[in-house]
Structures are given as C-alpha cells and as structure tokens.
# Entry
Amino acid sequence: MSTLTPVSSFDDLRSLVRQLPQPDTAAAEACRRHEAELTKPAGALGRLEELTCWLSAWQGRHPPRLDRVLILVFVGWHEIAKHKVSAYPAEVTDQMVLNFQAGGAAINQLARLAGAELQVIPVGQGRPAHDFTRRPAMSEAGCVRALNIGLSAVPEDIDLLAIGEMGIANTTAAAAIAAGLYGEPATAWTGPGTGLDTSGVAHKAEVIQGALDRHRAALKDPLEVLRYVGGRELAAMLGAILAARLRRVPVILDGFTSTVPAAVLQALDPASIEHCRSGHCSAEPGHRRLLDRIGQRPLLELGMRLGEASGAAVALQLVRAAVACHNGMATFESAGVSRKR
Ligand SMILES: O=C(O)c1ccc[n+]([C@@H]2O[C@H](COP(=O)([O-])O)[C@@H](O)[C@H]2O)c1
Ligand SMILES: Cc1cc2nc[nH]c2cc1C
# Structure
C-alpha cells in the first residue's frame, strides 16, 4: 500500500492543500444518467440520489462501491479540563479507550451494524494538549506530529471513511477554534458539551474568551488557531480528512468536534472539503452554526451529542440505502415499466 509522505511543517501542509485532486465528473455523470433510468419517478429518492453521485465522483467509479468502510476515532487529552469546562472528569478519556477496546461503547455497536471496520487511534497519549489559557495548546512540531498521525491513518483501498473523536474537554477546544477562526466571541460557539448547566456553559465561555484574548495576535492563520487553542485529536482529524481527499476517499463527518477540523481545512482552501458530507447535526448548539458556515446540510438530526463517530455511523446506513437502490434497482427498460408521459 502506498503511503502518503508525512509533512514536516505547516508550510508543507499548505503546499499539499494547493495540490488537491478534483472529483471525477465523468463517473458522477454516469451515475446521474443511470439514476434517471431506474424504476422510480425522476428524483424520487431525494437526497439519496445526490449521495450516490457524490460517492461516484470521489471514488472515481460507477457504480459506486461500499465494500470497505472504515471508521476512525481519534482520541485526545486536554489540560484545559482542569478548568472545570466539562461535566465529566478527565479520567473518562482513558476509561473510554478501554471501553472501545472491550467493545462496550456505542460506536462498537454502530460500526458493526453499519458493516464498517473501527479503529480507535490515541493521539499523544501521556502528552495532553497544554492548558491554552496559559500557553499554546501545541508546539508546531507537536501539531505536525498529530497531523501526520491522521495523514497516515487512511488506507488507499477504502471506499468510504467516517471520522469521529473522543476526549474530555474537547468541545472547549473545538469552540475556541471556531471562535478564533471566524473572529467571533466565545459565547457564540460555547455549549454544554457532555452536559454542563447554564452557569457551567457561562464559565466555559469565559475560559475560552480569556484564551482568545490572550492569543489574539496569533490567531490570524487557521493552522495557528488549531495549534494555539486546539488539541491533538483535532489536528489528527484534519490530517485524516486531507489524506482522504488526496486518496479520493469520500468522508462522512460526525458532530461539532469533528466538523471543526474540516472548517480549519476549508479556511485554508474553500474547495478542500467537497469530498466530505455531514452525517448529522449534533445537539451541541455550535454545530448547526458551523454547518451553516461551511455550507453543509447534515443527513440526520437526531439530537445526538455523543461524538465517537456515532452520528456518522448512523448516517452510514443512509449511504448504504442509497447504494443498495442505485446498484440493485431495475431500469425502466429491463423491467418493462413505462416512462413518464
Ligand atoms: O461532537 C459533538 O457534537 C459532541 C457534543 C458533545 C459531546 N461530545 C463528546 O463529549 C466529549 C467532549 O465533551 P466535553 O463536555 O468534555 O467538552 C468528547 O469525548 C466528545 O466526543 C461530542
Ligand atoms: C461516558 C462518555 C462517553 C463518551 N464518548 C465520547 N465522549 C464521551 C464522554 C463521556 C462522558
């Protein structure tokens, strides 16, 4: 299997972003033509029809295929957790890694149901992202290491990738990145995460705002925003989304925290996340706002707010439904069904 060359700096990553492969428009067109032949009124499968053509465009093949689907869950640790910004204690991150390995988490069940392989990837275990109210969350070298973990996690022979994360306090990092990226106050992006009450959310927003004020001068560049107020699993997700693009693998995004790295990538190049679709809109209020900002319409809105790629995994069932219809249905001609008058 060919490996992608690791990046050695932010500049290196920026030059990769300047060489992104484009969708296969011939495969997408073949998909649209076949869609029109299937035994249904034109357009009657709604957004499922767009999904098959999106898959065809990025897989570069018609018919699209879902033989090998991979779910990557990146795990990160956050010193910012000591500021009481999460409803749960920081040790839950280690405990959930064990739970993933034992098969006891929601994503273990959902991955099996979706016919997907699951890989849980700890990013910098024992080296949490620093308390970003005091110093940058990561050095450039540390951030580049995390980006490379994501870049190297995506095999070339997969048909679809779903991306998620786990890490106590990472909605604080995600909200800080979104606020830094769009130059908006912390309150616009801060929510309850795992379940803070109103005063907890207000405190979390103050912690984030303090960090944004402190680092204001450094927050002019999207990768510096990620480095100053982000976390290692967020950087790794950006690397994985970019690797998928370079390998022409379509991506389903999960919740607020996993959508933030996609927004950072989009800030580097507006066309860089066209291979991504949002699996769901989470209950974290910043997610809807972020999806509007990056121009994504989520497939599902179920009030989920779990992370760990769970919403993306449920959305995989819709992608499977779309492909089952597209690849299995008879045509008007083969079934002898009359066309529209
Ligand atoms: O991504 C989301 O939409 C989302 C919303 C709420 C919670 N989470 C998950 O909960 C953790 C972060 O929440 P918190 O309150 O510790 O910042 C982390 O493990 C995420 O996977 C994720
Ligand atoms: C139990 C638990 C499971 C999680 N999975 C993703 N984030 C999580 C946060 C908590 C607290």
User: Anything to note?
Assistant: The longest strand covers residues 69-75. Residues 88, 92, 96, 166, 194, 306-308 surround 5,6-dimethylbenzimidazole (ligand 2) (CB under 6 Å).
